[in-house]
Design brief:
Blueprint lengths: L1 E3 L2 E3 L13 H16 L3 E3 L7 H9 L17
Parallel strand pairs: 2-3
Antiparallel strand pairs: 1-2
């Protein structure tokens, strides 16, 4: 999702059956490369505390942790 002129937020949701095979990393690298070639200057992702796989993926992609929400509220429906 494009936010500002050159800032994007990314996210992913993969089927757990295919975890640990490198698909998430491979597809995320392709996405980030595409965005940077397009016009991105900044790309960020929100990662839930209870999702260590997503946090590790962000680290492998070279992303850094910039903050931590003390409280997170999600509304369904």
């Amino acid at each position: 999702m494009k936010e500002e002129t050159d800032t994007y937020t990314v996210g992913w949701n993969f089927n757990i059956k295919y975890g640990g095979k490198g698909y998430a990393y491979e597809s995320a690298v392709a996405l980030l490369n595409h965005l940077f070639w397009k016009d991105a200057r900044r790309i960020y992702a929100y990662v839930a505390d209870d999702n260590p796989g997503s946090y590790r993926l962000c680290e492998r992609l070279g992303m850094r942790k910039e903050g931590h929400f003390l409280e997170f509220i999600s509304f369904a429906n």
